């Protein structure tokens, strides 16, 4: 078998791999590069599918769908590719159900969730503590964070258990963890959680759909277009689908990349697939053991995403926003839903079954899962929810060459011992994928940042003249350190003012609570709280 | 390519795979079975090597070496194969160094480590609490343990932090974790730790070299002989070395097992390699996602084992046992050493660099590591330690088709959500390896138990007549549940009496400590403590 010869081989045709290819191509059009993808499509963890809708058919995202206005890397790409964004609809009553299946289903209109004053106070103090810790995290080198070993030695669950006062808040935090990571709080290191939040500018941006947050904007026509447009620019002839890489061998001269049917020789490789899949590739010589230990302990989340199309957005007509949050004790299979009405007006809801619940529901029959979802929607939004046009779902754990979604987390004890090998090139192999990002790690924007960083590393090796002086220095001194220092302080600058308000509010409410022993006083606290927070510019409490 | 046809293919020629093969062969000599092994030798995580010694050369174990008198599965095998055991030498002064590089190096002769009375009291109460929890663990189905979710949501580190009073004990427990698992306490679920200890009959049997404990006996001629003798019995022609399995495909009729050069068809497969390596095999159809999530989050320990041979066992002449325990703060690279003098009298020491320290020292030059080890030995045992005959070490993280040692642990959140897929067959694929054992999980004995259990599962499918009625029922109702119920109570029966003594001692010492505020009183406590524990039949405190 004669091997094809290329300059660069990129493993994975998701956003990270295609962003890397796009940058390489822009800087040096002569570089021969090939992208190998196991799936029969580009897009990785983004996929846009046409399903029946009110006006015939329409397209929805069954993978990553949201971007935010602080996600500079993805926004620049969207602009460059000539795509458009539109805001997540979030006006109207939101539904909130925690505290057991029999607990009252509450609705609320402000951005403060329908929690009792005591739980809101609890939430305030917990977020205040976590944000203070977030501000100390070194995203680039998390082991340099003050008290890193201790923070990395406990799970997010242990931190919550220790610092949240109320059972309701503990349930609420489980819900957040499930919605953001597809994981239970027991499954990740608390330092990892802090690093992840710091890379997004704080905890609230992970949870909200307000400006600057993770669920702020959607892309007209769907997010898979990003990868399709990039493949177009890079050239489809350079993308081979159905070509899963099984081995990467290196010698003094070449890297030899093998699929089940072909072998390719090249000067540099960029591996962009999620860590648990990168771990399945056979490397020769073996990778440093620290790298192996790292990828052995970065489990991927589990999410089942569903889209349900309707004749009309009946929830809007009834004054609902379409947003429902339901805790694991509610008996509801999903943790969160949002309005998903398309830009052309086709009514739809989107929702997620995640974490432990995904694990349980994944093994049920599809029909039973759908019935459970619909029955909860009827309970929360009314009987109109039962009369849908189409129900479509995607269980990401069952997707070949993904095996989970949205992101790989880190179990305790990794960041302090093995993190340095996350981005460190191994000979001719460079590492990308959103898990290696330092800004919006775990998001589409992080995928782009990581792909571009890996491309710059490769250019520095193969054709350093194609880099700016700044980029050359960045490779030498690690670009991303500067990135992190430059950009994460935005959260540090933003937070103190919010933090002060929160501290004042906490103290004030605390004082009131100390005096208050009856329901009337509690109501006064709630009213006070609502006033305090409706005057702050940021919506702090939206889950 | 025409595929060879076999009845059973076993992936891995370690103790578990060869024990499975041996049982299959004994029950049905007509079964055609093939064992595929990636390494160029049998034995897996056991390997016995000849090195220069006082009388020329001699053999030492560079992998698993100890067995204990409660490890019935391995003891029966040793007897059947006609091998002999001899006790671990443990007479004389033991060295203990924790509390920082400048802290006093203490020696002690009893089985109670050289800790201050307060730390000993702390150790007593912590072990008492842990053993009480151990007694509640359901080894077979850990998620049935009372409070399982909570116990599995925290790391061992978090539990120790919460329940140990003194910094010294916290360091001591880190040392234990490193010595037993090659892992830091931050890297494993507390419920996993409890399950592991329960499968061994309690925490102390993991740590001691006393009767019934993990470090009690060694095998004359080395432990790799077990696998070599088994390969002999099974027939070397049925063992193919250098044949790493890359894929297992299943259809209605066959399992198709692929190596880089061959394809084999068979009726049943037993996969015995450690979970992180089983995760690298490509399965088609894909394994259930729960199984994938499980193996993605079972990191393997890291140990570097060294043997140093000497002209004479100078430590014995000086009254030392050869046992040294050193905490991570001591500046010493290894965590523990023992006398390793061979049955034929060749003097040697064996030691382990483990966990975080292995991770740090693994990337150093071999010469520097050796110098650091020797310099610590000189410090603890005297300048004679520098005049060695031969220094030989094995870094298990760098061993192909192992990638770590001694065992894979479970990160938090796994046991409660994904554990059921640990032993559950996937179509024609059955799972063995010591990690799947319910008695002495993680030890050579567990490897044998697991291999035999998988073999019984295969026989139940291919030739049920070869099974006893009891075994047939066991497969139906899960043999190992009975095993666990039958055998773990030995710990439950043993512990209460020890526990009572410990409770009485704790209360008594507590009372004395409350009264004592000067050094004299502390000395009295220490003397009291020594008296109390020298009268108990078990040596409770030996680390």
Automatic annotation (TrEMBL), chains A, B:
Pfam families: Amino_oxidase (PF01593). Its EC number is 1.4.3.-. It is a single-pass type IV membrane protein. Residues 15-459 form the Amine oxidase domain. The chain crosses the membrane at residues 6-24, 188-207. Its main location: mitochondrion. Keywords: FAD, Flavoprotein, Membrane, Mitochondrion, Mitochondrion outer membrane, Oxidoreductase, Transmembrane, Transmembrane helix. GO terms for cellular component: mitochondrial outer membrane. Its cofactor is FAD. Substrate binds at residue 352. InterPro entries: Amino_oxidase, FAD/NAD-bd_sf, Flavin_amine_oxidase, Flavin_MAO. It catalyses: a secondary aliphatic amine + O2 + H2O = a primary amine + an aldehyde + H2O2. FAD binds at residues 16, 245, 435. It is an enzyme of class 1 (oxidoreductase). It comes from the Eukaryota. GO terms for molecular function: monoamine oxidase activity; primary methylamine oxidase activity. SUPFAM superfamilies: FAD-linked reductases, C-terminal domain, FAD/NAD(P)-binding domain. It is found in: Mitochondrion outer membrane. Belongs to the flavin monoamine oxidase family. This is Amine oxidase.
């Amino acid at each position: 078998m004669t091997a094809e010869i290329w300059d660069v081989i990129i493993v994975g045709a998701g956003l990270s791999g295609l962003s890397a290819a796009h940058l390489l191509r822009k800087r040096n059009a002569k570089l021969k590069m090939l992208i190998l993808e196991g799936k029969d499509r580009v897009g990785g963890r983004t996929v846009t599918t046409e399903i029946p809708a009110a006006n015939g058919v329409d397209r929805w995202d069954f993978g990553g769908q949201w971007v935010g206005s602080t996600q500079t890397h993805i926004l620049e790409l969207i602009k460059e590719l000539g795509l458009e964004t539109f805001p997540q609809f979030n006006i109207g009553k939101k539904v909130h159900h925690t505290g057991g299946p029999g607990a009252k289903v509450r609705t609320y209109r402000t951005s403060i969730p329908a929690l009792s004053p005591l739980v809101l106070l609890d939430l305030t103090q917990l977020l205040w503590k976590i944000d203070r810790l977030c501000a100390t995290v070194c995203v680039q080198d998390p082991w340099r964070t003050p008290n890193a070993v201790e923070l990395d030695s406990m799970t997010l669950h242990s931190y919550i258990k220790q610092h949240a006062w109320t059972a309701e808040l503990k349930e609420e935090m489980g819900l957040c963890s499930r919605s953001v990571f597809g994981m239970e709080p027991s499954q990740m290191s608390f330092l990892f959680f802090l690093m992840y939040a710091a890379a997004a500018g704080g905890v609230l941006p992970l949870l909200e759909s307000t400006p600057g947050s993770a669920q702020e904007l959607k892309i007209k026509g769907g997010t898979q277009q990003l990868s399709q447009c990039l493949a177009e620019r890079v050239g489809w002839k350079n993308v081979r689908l159905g070509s899963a890489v099984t081995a990467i061998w290196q010698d003094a001269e070449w890297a030899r990349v093998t699929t089940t049917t072909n072998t390719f020789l090249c000067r540099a490789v960029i591996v962009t697939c999620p860590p648990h899949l990168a771990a399945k590739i056979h490397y020769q010589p073996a990778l440093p053991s620290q790298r192996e230990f790292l990828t052995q302990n970065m489990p991927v989340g589990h999410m089942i995403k569903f889209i349900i199309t309707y004749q009309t957005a009946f929830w809007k007509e009834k004054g609902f926003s379409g947003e429902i949050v339901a805790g694991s004790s509610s008996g509801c299979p999903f943790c969160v839903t949002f309005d998903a009405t398309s830009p052309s007006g086709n009514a739809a809801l989107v929702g997620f079954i995640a974490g432990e619940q995904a694990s349980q529901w994944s093994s049920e029959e599809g029909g039973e899962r759908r019935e459970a979802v619909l029955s909860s929607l009827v309970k929360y939004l009314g009987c109109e929810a039962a009369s849908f046009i189409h129900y479509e779902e995607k269980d990401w754990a069952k997707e070949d060459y993904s095996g989970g979604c949205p992101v790989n987390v880190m179990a305790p004890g990794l960041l302090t011992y093995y993190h340095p090998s996350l981005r460190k090139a191994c000979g001719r192999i460079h590492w990308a994928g959103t898990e290696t990002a330092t800004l919006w790690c775990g998001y589409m924007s992080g995928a782009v940042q990581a792909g571009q960083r890996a491309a710059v590393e490769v250019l520095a090796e193969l054709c350093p003249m194609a880099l700016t002086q700044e980029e050359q220095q960045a490779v030498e001194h690690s670009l991303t350190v500067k990135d992190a220092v430059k950009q994460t302080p935005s959260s540090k600058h933003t937070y103190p003012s919010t933090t002060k308000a929160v501290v004042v509010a906490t103290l004030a409410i605390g004082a009131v609570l100390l005096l208050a022993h009856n329901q009337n006083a509690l109501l006064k606290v709630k009213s006070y709280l609502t006033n305090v927070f409706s005057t702050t510019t940021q919506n702090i409490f939206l889950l």
